[in-house]
């Protein structure tokens, strides 16, 4: 009987420790997809929440996975201060745009190119919270801005409004002409009598 009590207590304690461990993890939040125009700059936003206060051991790692699924490339690191990559495609093209006090660890990629299409990952560790989610941002670099659905809707509503004004104006003009023609007929009939 004592063996079962010991086993039950161990299972309950294990479940509580697991729940506590999951609650102590860092959660990272990013946009899922970003579309940017070739040659422009783009801010890749990444924020985090942690059950612990931000420590001086906070580590931020940004990495890049190209669309062709070749090897991951380091983009940026932060440990007490920002560190730009010493080499690679993002050397001299990435800057820190975060604010640790606001749990913001965002970066800016400068002079975007089609070869920058791919997935950027943002990972944050804040001791003692070392485990947690990894934020992913899929970046699509396009040659020009696509005609979005909102623009299409705005053009459709604008066109419909203009068409409505033209129809109302035509109806008013037709009624006035009919009224003038009727008045003229009545006048001619009155003069004949």
- CATH third-tier fold name of the largest domain: Immunoglobulin-like
Strand element count: 11
CATH superfamily of the largest domain: Immunoglobulins
- Beta-strand content: 25-35%
Helix content, binned percent: 25-40%
**C-alpha-based Rg, rounded:** 33 Å
Mean pLDDT: 84
Principal-axis shape? elongated
Organism: Chaetorhynchus papuensis
GO cellular component, one term: plasma membrane
Keywords: Disulfide bond, Glycoprotein, Immunoglobulin domain, Membrane, Signal, Transmembrane, Transmembrane helix
Membrane topology: Single-pass type I membrane protein
Q: How would you describe what is shown here?
A:
This protein is of the alpha+beta class. Helix content is 34%, strand content 28%. It folds into two domains: 21-142, Immunoglobulins (Immunoglobulin-like), CATH 2.60.40; 145-192. The chain has helices at 2-23, 149-192; strands spanning 27-30, 33-37, 42-44, 46-49, 59-66, 73-79, 82-83, 94-96, 107-109, 118-125, 135-142. It has a six-stranded mixed sheet with strand order 2-11-10-5-6-7, with no helix packed on it. InterPro entries: Ig-like_dom, Ig-like_dom_sf, Ig-like_fold, Ig_sub, Ig_V-set, Myelin_P0-rel. Pfam families: V-set. Its main location: membrane. This is MPZL2 protein.
